[in-house]
Amino acid sequence: MMDLTAAFDTDAILARLKAVLENGRYINGPEVQELEQKVSDYLGVEYAVGLNSGTDALVIGLRAAGIEEGDEVITTPFTFFATAEAIHHCKAKPIYVDIDPNTFNLDMDLVEKALTPRTKAIICVHMFGNACDMAHLEQICQKHSIKLIEDCAQSFSGTYHGKKLGSFGDVGALSFFPSKNLGSIGDAGMIVTNSHDIYTSAKMLRSHGSLKKYHNETIGYNSRLDTIQAAFLLEKIIKIDEAFTRRNEIAALYSEILAGNKGIHTPKPVQGHGHSFHQYTLRVEGGRRDGLKEWLATKLCDSMIYYPIPLHKLPIYQNSDMGPLPISERICSEVLSLPIWPEMSNETVEKVAELVQDYFRRS
Ligand SMILES: Cc1ncc(COP(=O)(O)O)c(C=O)c1O
Fold first, then answer.
1. Do 163 and 183 share a domain, yes or no?
2. Is 168 helix (H, G, I), strand (E, B) or coil?
3. Which atom from ligand 1 is nearest to the alpha carbon of 187?
4. Are 156 and 29 in contact (CB under 8 A)?
5. Helix, strand, coil: what percent of the chain each, to 5?
6. What is the pTM of this model?
7. Rounded to the nearest whole angstrom, what is the distance from the C-alpha of residue 148 to the centroid of ligand 1?
8. Which domain holds residue 77?
9. Is any atom of ligand 1 closer than 6 Å to the C-beta of 175?
10. In this structure, are 168 and 259 located in the same domain?
11. 110 CA to middle of ligand 1, Å?
12. What per-residue string of b and e applies to 50-73 under the rule 16 or more CB within 10 Å gives b?
């Protein structure tokens, strides 16, 4: 699906890692603060707090935003389970709202209908790197005095009307999992915010509930971002805009070749939404998605189903009545993500797209 080793200059990385080894400050070393500053400058936000994963960024982000037991948090069923797991970790309740089949993001009309007096937050997920309708979400959250959390695990470098994703909500939760747009060489994450209170609270939560060593004020976590990951990411972030441009070129080439194939829907650009194409995801109609995946595999071409099961249908909810959410249920049987990474050549993109076309010619 991607070649992670192609994404960096080994000599430059080794120089960064050597500096960490020699410095000896393996926890909370200077690279962590440098990365927090770089990311907050890049996204145009006041504060950033490095954490050990995107999952922790959601849990700590929700807690720092004041979400607690009994609260309802509206989110999408078409995402990775970590989004909902974070809500459960706060002993709050996820309220799943169906998605728009074209953007794979929350359907705004349904969000309004799902609000109750217990709703305390919305987690929007910029799925596959495609921006949610931030103007609408901001308006709903302001009107009802609820928090907005952006799950930006897949959307680093994406924009909405020129403004970077992650800078809209009370909290932006970032993942630096290796395969993400800004990927590390292990687990890492971060929250970004413009709120000093959320920033302070997140810093406390990441360090066992203490801002001052041995003065613990709450039950927190050991969730620091490793210095070595920060050093790696400082090198990688240099090329993030280049990577964004290249991901868009690859997506445009796929869409150009695949346009007009009956039964396939390619991602449709939305005016003002700067898609960062973490994934290039097709919708395959007519029950032919699994056949296409198998065909690609016989030609040694990877493809992935993100996600095969909408969250409300997961075994964990087998005794709960959380549906129906018909669009998400249908979309899970239609989506197929094709290989994409910034260093992918046009020839490889063309080869993959031709294999997809071959399948439809044959079947
Ligand atoms: C939408 C979404 N949210 C959260 C996460 C969790 O991030 P991490 O793996 O860094 O914990 C992921 C990672 O796959 C994700 O895709």
1. yes
2. coil
3. 10
4. no
5. 45, 15, 40
6. 0.98
7. 18
8. 4-238
9. yes
10. no
11. 24
12. bbbbbbbbbbbbbbbbebeeebbb
Average pLDDT, stretch 315-330? 93
Residue 82 CB–ligand 1 contact under 6 Å: yes
Least confident stretch, 169-173, 234-238, 287-291, 321-325? 321-325
Largest CA distance in the chain: 68
Q: Is the CB of 295 under 6 A from ligand 1?
A: no
Same domain assignment for residues 27 and 64: yes
| 65 shares its domain with 139 | yes
Domain boundary among 221, 238, 255: 238
Average pLDDT over residues 245-250: 98
Distance CA 297, CA 299 (A): 5
In angstroms, what is the span from residue 175 Cα to ligand 1's centroid? 6
Count of domains for the chain: 2
Whole-angstrom distance, CA of residue 199 vs CA of residue 344: 37
Q: What is the pLDDT of residues 197-211, one digit of tens each?
A: 999 999 999 999 999
Give yes or no: residues 134 and 207 share one domain. yes
Specify the residue for token string 């500053």.
37
Decide whether any atom of ligand 1 lies within 6 Å of the 125 Cβ.
Answer: yes
**Ligand 1 pocket, residue 55 CB under 6 Å:** yes
Q: What is the DSSP string of 261-306?
A: -TTEEPPPP-TTEE---SSEEEEE-TT-HHHHHHHHHHTT---B-S
What confidence score (pLDDT) does residue 116 get? 98
Is the CB of 336 within 6 Å of ligand 1? no
Tell me which of 212, 238, 264 is where a domain ends.
Answer: 238
CATH number at residue 289: 3.90.1150.10
- Mark whether 209 and 300 lie in a shared domain: no
Same domain? 149 vs 285: no
Q: Which pLDDT tens digit goes with each residue over 42-54?
A: 999 999 999 999 9
Considering the domain architecture, whether residues 123 and 29 belong to the same structural domain is answered as yes
Taking the C-alpha atoms of residue 77 and residue 94, their distance in angstroms, rounded to an integer, is 9
Residue 154 Cβ < 6 Å to ligand 1: yes
CATH number at residue 170: 3.40.640.10
